[in-house]
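Thread title: Can someone regenerate the structure for this chain?

I was given the following input by a collaborator and told the matching structure tokens would be attached. They weren't. Posting the sequence so someone can regenerate them.
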Amino acid sequence: MGDDLEVGRLVARARAGDRQAFGELYDRHAERVFRFALARLPEPADAEDLVQRVFLKAIEALPRYEERGLPFGAWLFRIARNALIDRDRVRRPTLPLDDAAQAHAAEHEQPARAVELSAEQERVRAALAALTAEQRDVLVYRYFAGLTPSEIAALMGKREGSVRSLQFRALAAMKRRLEPESAAAGRLAEDVL
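Best answer:
Regenerated them for you:
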């Protein structure tokens, strides 16, 4: 609760024109907004651009910001989500995962591992794409942006219990989509050996 109070004070100072306070708000939230954007955009540079657009829109809208039950961080994620929707109208984004592991494997001359990682990322990407929009959003907010269930609930206009239930169903759906192939591969390996 103390952190919420501190953010509230920073927001009040930023609304009054205190640049340093807005800088502190940026420092507190930019990394999480970046991870959220990175989970939804094909390139890190695109995610960085989106973060800049989100904070620019936040600066422009800050004089009109009122908490009204939606904490500042959730308000930023709503701006980010709307910016992604606007972007989607122009082109269909992919759901990238961490390509750093693939690059790391390639750097260390492990082409088989790089191919394996790429295939696994594609399976996860396909499983995410098969979820409902709400399920996908909950997983991205929770695991890529690092939001708490209460923050997600405020952002999505749902109760925290509903968010937890949605997250549970999304993870179960992901597991169902990812397990059959793994189980089949395991049985095939047992048959071969």
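The chain has two domains: 1-94, 131-193.
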